[in-house]
Each structure stands twice: as C-alpha cells, then as structure tokens.
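Q: My labmate handed me this sequence with no annotations at all. I'd like to see what the chain might look like in three dimensions before we decide whether it's worth expressing. Could you predict it?
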Amino acid sequence: MVGRLSLPANQHPHNFVLFAHCFTCNKNFRAIRNISRALTTDGFGVLRFDFTGLGESEGEFSDSNFSGNVEDLLEAAEYLKQHFTSPTLIIGHSLGGAAAIIAAQKISSIRAIATIGAPSNPLHVKHIFKDDIETINDKGTSEVNIGGRSFTIKKQFLDDLKSQSFQETLKNIGKSILILHSPQDKIVEIKNSEEIYIAAHHPKSFISLDGADHLLSNPQDATYTGEIIGKWSKRYLEMPEAIALETKQEVVASLDNADGFTTQMKLGSHYITADEPVSFGGNNFGPSPYELVSAGLSACTVMTIQMYAKRKKWPLENVEVHTSYKKLHAEDCRNCESSEAKIDTFQRAIKLTGNLEEKQISRIMEIADKCPVHRTLKSEIKISTNLLNK
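A: Here is what I predict for the chain of 390 residues:
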C-alpha cells in the first residue's frame, strides 16, 4: 500500500489520524487533502493511503472488497504504531466511513470516529452499479462505470457486503462518534446519518454540512469539515497540557530537556515557537533566534518608514523590508590583525511602492537607519542577568 503522512509544520503531532477515503477514490482526492490540511494545522498527524487496487497501491481492485478495505486500515494502523504512535482518531468518507466504524472496533488505540456522508449499511454502495447487479450475479463479474471510470466488480464483492454485521458493530462500538452529513447529499441520502445516529450509543454527535455535495467539491466545505472534526475530537483524546508562561518581563522563553531546540515563548500577550533548522539539529518548528532578531529589525523599519511618510503625506503605498543575518569578514574591526575576524552583519533590502520622487526615496532610506531597533543594534548594549530561583 502507498500512503501519505501529513504532519504539522510547527510541532510534533499531538495525535495521529487514520483516513479512509470514499469508494473508488484515492488518497490524493482534493477533499481529503483539504480536510487533512485543516487537521495538520490543528496539530494532528494524518495518514491517508490508497486502498488495495486503487491509486498507487498494488493489487487488483476487482479482487478487493469491503473486508479487504477494513484489513487495509488495520495494516495502516499497525504502520503508525510501529513507526510513530498508534492512531487515536479515524475518519471515513462515504463507504470509507462504514469501513472506519468496523476498523475502529478492532483498533484498540482509536478513541474517536468521524464519518462524512457515510451509509448506514455497506450494502448501500450497490445502488452505484444497480443496473449491473443482475449481470454480476449471473456471470460472476461485470464492468461497471463509476464516476466516468471503468471498474470490474465481482460477485464476491457483493457477497462480502451482505456478510457485514454493521448495525451490531455500531451498537457495541463503545467509542465516541461524530456523524457529518449534508442534507443535499444525492449519493448517500441524509437519512443514513439518522440511522447511524440512532444505532450508535453516546457519546455521539451530528453536524450538518448544509449546502455541501457528497464529495465536498467546494474546498471551503472540506476545510470546515476538517476544522470541526479537529475541535470535536479533542474532547475525547489525550491532549498535551498547554504551557502557561508568565513573566514580569516583556518576553519569556521556556525549553524542556527533551525538546531539543524547540522553545516555547511568550512575547507580550502573544505566543510563538522558536527553533533551529533541521540541519542544525532542530525541528524547524519556528524561527531561529537570529531570524527573530532580523524580524524585529524588519518590522521596526517598515513601521518607522510608514510613520514618517504619513507625517510628510508622501504617497508611499507599501514598504517591504527583507532582512537576513550573517557573520562576515570584517573590513574595519578591533582585531584586524586576525584574518579570521568577523562581524555580525544584518543585510537589509528595502522595497518602496508608490509615486515617490528621488529626494523622497533618498530621505526614506536615511530614515530607515533611524528606526529604534536599528539604533539598538548599533549601540553599546548592556545585558543584566539574575537568577529567578532565589
């Protein structure tokens, strides 16, 4: 099987999600990507993969069935367990929702289930190729057209669907479930969500995806779905305790022994993460310390320039300041006899947008050097350090 693991950009995942796609879809289906993106933004790691015979996964679709999809989910869960952490949330879209419910009963780590436009019985999928069922039963196989693509469906596929004890599983699942469905769904009617809700025990929740189609073709619908699932599931999952940083100073930074370089910070009333690049041994979950200093210089410069231009009523529409930090060989230094002498250098480039005269531009470039952070970096700096433990 071939899958894709999506991870948060600014932290280690607090929980891992297993995603079961819809019948004949694949892991790269746009709605699945948008849902996954919303979840990774919320700190989840998401594994989506192609069922056997679909997408990039090996095998023949004609030899697969619903039970095989469930087995694929169990294998994917085992992969996460072996290489990362066992999944705690499972999501299923359409028939994948039914497979997710069955698989959740067999994956002990799963604490929460979310279904999207799921049928209340796997047999519902028969309506997609209802005109071919007689041929399948008589000849044992038939080529059917699903969504403009041709698939071979064998009788064993139908027999496997009939063998599923889906309602019994729902009654005994013992895990929290969120049912998302659109009232306008023309593929799997909304009554299916009602039947799932009635069969399942509490805790259970229902969210209406009003205005969405079955495939969540509108990216906003898919993103909304991912955001709702993320927020709902946190009530039932183990979440790391938020670090409460307090300080009498303007900024505080906190780093645990096990976190490498990933540093939690509070700047005034704002929380951010600082880190180092992967090449330096960090996780790249946030800007490096020198990037933060460069950011302060850039921000202060644009504020100073715009404030001056407004006071002068000059037509400055926008100003950009691009800054980077390097240590360069010093041309003028206190230790010039050493060929290794270097000096801290901030390279700053300014872009001005507006109908400005040359004299105005020249003056603005002078004003850039007068921003408070620039002056601080150029002046003699004193840093006073004391121990807070005593």
